[in-house]
Amino acid sequence: MSFYISAMSLSISCVSIHKSGMSLRKSAMSLYKSHMSFYISAVSFGKSCVSLHKSGMSLRKSAMFLYKSYMSFCISAVSFGKSCVSFHKSGMSLRKTAMSLYKTAMSLDKTCVLFSESALLMAA
What are the average pLDDT values for consecutive 10-residue runs of the chain, which has 124 residues? Predict the structure, then answer.
């Protein structure tokens, strides 16, 4: 009978140990599921970060294109400004030449008038 009681006690202990093991297994599975859920979230977050990085790089390329276009426009504007200054200088030079020709014509006109007056005086 003592053997029977010991066997029953051992059987009860085994059942108890088995229940503890099953409980531990359930806890481990719950922990594993939590870990997998966290891992999936981390992968999803990583993909979002990569997507955001790609968007940022695309935005950077667009910004560089706009900057280069702006700089090209500035260089063109400076070149146009230099052309305007050159054109202005040519215009001023032409104006001086025109004024010089005008003064020469006025001087010739005065000379003609003096010759005409002299010719009239000689004729009289």
Answer: 83 91 95 96 96 97 97 97 96 96 94 88 78
